[in-house]
Amino acid sequence: MSLNDTRRYARSLVAASLVWDNHGCMPLRPLDETFLPQLELYRSSGVDVAMLNVGFGEQGVEEHLRMLAHFRRWIAARSDRYLLIRTVDDIRRARESGRLAIGFDIEGANGIGDQLSLVSLYYDLGVRWMLMAYNGSNRVGGGCQADDGGLTAFGRQVLDEMARVGMVACCSHTGDRTARDVLEYSRNPVIFSHSNPRALFDHPRNIPDALMLGCARTGGVVCLNGAGIFLGDNDISTERYFRHIDYAVQLVGADHVGIGLDYVFDTGELDGYLARMKDTFPAELGYAMDGGYQCVSPAQIEPLVELQLKAGYAESDIRKILGTNLLRVAEAVWRPNE
Question: What is d(CA 122, CA 142) in angstroms, rounded to the nearest whole number?
Answer without folding.
Answer: 22
